[in-house]
Amino acid sequence: MSKAQRMSLALFLVLNILAAPVAQAQRARRDVERSIEALLARMTLEEKLGQLQQLDGHADGRYKDEQPELVRKGLLGSTLNVRGVRNTNELQRIAVEESRLKIPLIFGFDVIHGYRTIFPVPLAEASSWDPASVERAAQVAAAESRAAGVHWTFAPMLDIARDARWGRIVEGSGEDPYLGAALARARVRGFQGADYSAPDRVVACAKHWVAYGAAEGGRDYNTTEVSETTLREIYFPPFRAAVEAGVGTFMSAFNDLNGVPTSANPFTLTRVLRGEWKFDGFVVSDYESVKELMNHKLADGEADAARLALGAGVDMEMVSRLYNKHGAELLRQNRLTRAEIDEAVRRILRVKFRAGLFDNPYADEARERAALMNPEHQRATREMAARSLVLLKNERETLPLDRNLRSLAVVGALADSQLDMIGSWSGDGRKEDAVTLLAALRAKLSPRTEIKFAKGCDAPCASGEGFDEAVRAARESDATVVVLGESADMSGEAASRSSLELPGRQTDLLKAIHAAGKPYVVVLMNGRPLTINWAAENSPAILETWFAGTQGGHAVADALFGDVNPGGKLPVTFPRAVGQIPLYYNHKRTGRPSDANNKYTSKYLDVAWTPLFPFGHGLSYTQFRLTGLQLSAARIPADGRMTLSVEVENTGRRAGDEVVQLYLTDAASSVTRPVKELKGFERVTLRPGEKRRVQFTLAPEHLGFYDREMRFRVEPGAFTVTVGNSSEGGLTSSFEVFEQRTPRRRVSSGRVN
Ligand code: NOJ
After folding, report:
1. Hey, which of 58, 249, 287 would you mutate to test ligand 1's pocket, going by the most ligand atoms within 8 Å of its Cβ?
2. Looking at the predicted structure, is the pLDDT value of residue 503 above 50?
3. DSSP summary character for residue 64
4. pLDDT digits over 531-552, tens only?
5. Percentage of the chain lying above the pLDDT 70 cut
6. pLDDT tens, 541-593?
7. What is the pLDDT of residue 747?
8. Where in the chain do CATH 3.20.20.300 domains reside?
9. Closest residue (by CA) to atom 10 of ligand 1?
């Protein structure tokens, strides 16, 4: 064989090896499509409508009495809340052994931040700015869920939230689309892995599609009005990222959007999701959101609601039963087509096939026992909690506390509340499993440190009766940890607030402790940004811990005594007053920027217009210096890329983490743009004195925006980059983009993040 022949043979073999997995995946996809069509051809209309129905189980995981019979007749495709291997296997057995077509059920459940081992609430996880840890948290949640018979989680929640009054801000990743997209990818990967038929993975669900977080007044379920530009640039990117990461399902939302409720919105459900993004999984409605189309007065009766939702692209109906009740009649009247129904069934079957349910419909009790609360999972949640902590303030190195204290006072009911530690919507989590801060401090400190616990008041802190006792404890101790915040049920679904103050008399309690004149630190537990102006001004140190999960107490205690160095950053802006809302860092400019010397500029009479703590803020027990910002080019073509790098150095005396953040500002453009936008970040760990160069890439997807015709494009002109440790300040440089030579891209091919 000649050298040339040998080389071409080698090339042929390499190409074949590389192509093999692709070919295999294509074959698998084709097989799935063939199986779907074969099944579809055998299904009656009733059985098809049955696949589109999801019903609720009991809160404790049991199925409801009517469900076995519905399953037997092929009239139920899925349940939510039915969980635990015994329950799921019982119902599944009826589906795969007693129903005519033996189509397995898909069991869904809200695994929002852990199944039994509870992780920090999603907003806390987002504070880690650490996609790898967030992915790991989702992976653990998936392993426990699947082991307990759950195939499908209603997570990740990808709603951008610019309004802290909205209680569901706790369930998401905050206000920024870039961070939101990065964490969306991480969570989808964590839940689903490369193949969600694996015995330790579940199907993910990107929710709530879409703009649910824009509820007017921050009042849950309220109407939303959002321009297409803001949808595409702010609200869509995390969802787009989830589709790119292969998310199996979407959930349509409760809210009305620009006059068309999102559970019947052809623009979002069909044009964008199926058309532009080529999503081939299925969409489930939110809880009775199909029926609620009647409350919106979009639907004129039940049949109309079913027609509007299914016709717009909601494939599965959660809890209400209008598809089943009216599907046949709608078909007869030609108000729905057979093709529309078939397409919904096809999408649901596709996910069931991909989840491996036809091959492995059952779960295994031994596996369930081994998975839940597994020690590995406890380590993972403790680690995640440690990475979620945000040090908001630390004057004169008040924190960390000295381990050799003779006495420590712990004040605040939240310090010893297991229920609050695991936060709202905690899956199958049990409060008995949770380690509170008080318990963790007792475990951590030697018996030489006397710990005095005084609640001060019980939630919602209506009375000051216990204040004296708390003050006495503070006075008699070397230091005090004051734990303040919200109870877990003050955020989450249907938990909007009109005030962002610490509930009840907690600020008075804090003032009383402050007046005792002894060293103290504030630990916050809360599900949303709070207007903690007094504490921010007067208290020496504030550690934001959100709701830190099953092992949260240990992580917080570790941070208070320096065994963990907090390195998280805020994924949301903390306002000074509720009246400033919406307040977010990537806002537009005004023709009259705030000017203290000019009344007729954009500001308030009674409060500064700036935040209390900006997006991206977070301190450390050590210090970092950023230097040497370098750009690979001063000019790039509009379709080009550039790299940027900066050196970050730990100049302090402890190891610690810094999150280097890259923001981009467009100097001038054909539509107005935000003052700055996050376009890169990296969390780095450095030993004292250690330096590292962190590198970022800017590409058209970062530089572009939607123009007046909704085309995604990069316009020539000047840009400024700012690299810093929060959304305020940092090193800046600029570069220019010049006209590209290749044709402009259109919306359908453009990325939005
Ligand atoms: C309503 C909530 O909006 C949604 O997030 C959740 O997944 C469903 N209920 C099911 O519990």
Report:
1. 287
2. yes
3. P
4. 999 999 999 999 999 999 999 9
5. 97
6. 999 999 999 999 999 999 999 999 999 999 999 999 999 999 999 999 999 99
7. 47
8. 48-368
9. 287
CB 547 within 8 A of CB 120: yes
> In Å, how far are 305, 438, 558, 700, 711 from 751, measured between CA atoms?
33, 47, 41, 9, 11
368 closest CA partner among 60, 83, 79, 61: 83
Q: 553, 118 in Cβ contact below 8 A?
A: no
Instruction: From the CA of 212, give the closest atom in ligand 1.
Output: 3
Nearest to 561 by CA among 446, 444, 452: 444
Predicted local distance difference test score (pLDDT) of residue 19 = 74
Centroid of ligand 1 to alpha carbon of 286 (angstroms): 6
pLDDT digits (tens, 9 = 90+) for 350-385: 999 999 999 999 999 999 999 999 999 999 999 999
Report the distance separating Cα 392 and Cα 90, nearest Å.
50
Q: Where in the chain is the domain with CATH 3.40.50.1700?
A: 381-563
3-state helix, strand, coil in the chain (%, to 5): 35, 20, 45
Q: What is the DSSP string of 692-729?
A: EEEEEEE-HHHH-EE-TTS-EEPPPEEEEEEEESSSS-
Percent of the chain with pLDDT over 90: 94
Whether pLDDT at 152 is above 90: yes
Cα 698 from Cα 644, distance rounded (Å): 8
- 558: annotated active-site residue: no
CATH class of domain segment(s) 381-563: alpha beta
Q: Rounded to the nearest whole angstrom, what is the distance from the C-alpha of residue 240 to the centroid of ligand 1?
A: 21
Helix/strand/coil for 586:
coil
The ligand 1 atom nearest the CA atom of 171: 5
Exposure letters 100-115 (e unless 16+ CB within 10 A, then b): eeebbbbbbbbbbbbb
CA angle centred on 126, ends 121 and 128, rounded to 5°: 105
Give residue 283 CA to ligand 1 midpoint distance, Å.
13
Residue 753 scores a pLDDT above 60: no
Cα of 130 from ligand 1 centre, angstroms? 26
DSSP-assigned states of every residue in 362-418? ---HHHHHHHTT-HHHHHHHHHHHHHH-EEEEEGGG-PSPPTT-SEEEEESGGGG-H
Pocket of ligand 1 (CB under 6 A): 80, 110, 154, 207, 286-287, 493
On the 0-12 / 13-18 / 19+ scale of CB atoms within 10 A, 162 is buried
Which ligand 1 atom is the nearest neighbour of the CA of 108?
10
Token digits of residue 341: 């129904």
pLDDT digits (tens, 9 = 90+) for 609-620: 999 999 999 999
On the question of pLDDT at 434 being above 50, the answer is yes
Q: Which CATH number fits domain 624-738: 2.60.120.10, 3.40.50.150, 2.60.40.10, 3.90.550.10?
A: 2.60.40.10
Question: Which residue, by CA, sits nearest to atom 11 of ligand 1?
Answer: 110
Instruction: State the catalytic residue, choosing from 130, 176, 220, 286.
Output: 286
Domain 48-368 fold: TIM Barrel (3.20.20)
DSSP label of 503: S
Q: Which two tokens stand for residue 299?
A: 């639907």
